[in-house]
Amino acid sequence: PTAEQMRIAQIIDTRTEDPNLKDKIKQAMDATRKTEDEVCTALHDCDNDLDRAVNMLLEGMGQ
After folding, report:
1. I want to staple 57 with a disulfide (CB 3.0 to 4.6 A). Which of 4, 27, 32, 46 is the partner?
2. Mean pLDDT value across the chain
3. Could you tell me the pLDDT band of residue 17, with boundaries at 50, 70 and 90?
4. For position 49, what pLDDT does the model report?
5. Does the domain formed by 3-58 have CATH 1.10.3210?
6. Per-residue pLDDT for 62 more than 70?
7. Rounded to an integer, what distance in angstroms lies between the CA atom of residue 32 and that of residue 6?
8. Mean of the pLDDT values across residues 6-18?
9. CA–CA gap between residue 20 and residue 41 (Å, rounded)
């Protein structure tokens, strides 16, 4: 597997760790108009901190 595939697998695994993560994903998608993949990556990079992830996406750093 490539590094990108490994990263995606890690992101998918973290979705089951936080029971509120689906709500955070939806809120971030609504706030930023980004795709689920972009939002999941941002949340993962920000340790599932919704505010930080939204700010990162809005500032364009999540691309």
Report:
1. 32
2. 85
3. low
4. 94
5. no
6. no
7. 26
8. 69
9. 16
Rg from Cα positions in the chain: 11
The CA distance from 2 to 30, in Å, is: 30
Neighbours of 60 (CB within 10 A): 7
Q: Mutual orientation of helices 21-32 and 36-45 as an angle, nearest 10°?
A: 120
Q: Which residue has the tokens 């939806």?
A: 26
Which pTM was predicted? 0.68
* Domain ranges (residues) in the chain: 3-58
Please report, as a single letter, which amino acid is at residue 35.
T
Residue 52 has pLDDT above 80, yes or no: yes
CA 58 to chain CA centroid, nearest Å = 13
Residue type, 46: C
CA distance 1 to 62: 23
